[in-house]
Amino acid sequence: MKDIIAKAVEGGYRFSNVDHVYYEEEPRFLDEIFFSHDFLKAFFGEEETCMRCGLWFMKKCTKDSSHREVGVAWQYHAQQLVLSEDRIKYLEGFLE
Hints:
Helix content: 40-55%
Mean pLDDT: 80
Strand order of the largest sheet: 1-2
Shape: elongated
């Protein structure tokens, strides 16, 4: 869990006193952190991303260009995080 927060902080997320309470004292409120736009932007970035496959739009996306939907990385991953059964495991998959 600390590695997830550390990656977001490295990406520019400002871990506030309220976040500290959620993280340390009330872990059931972690979704308040994980679904904040500031956290998602810091953790996943704002690169152009194919909203169908989640890959970097210009270089890696394999979808037919006529069917591509372009968004930004953090928005795509926010959608996937909502659908994930284990949010922590999903986020851990993006730790280097």
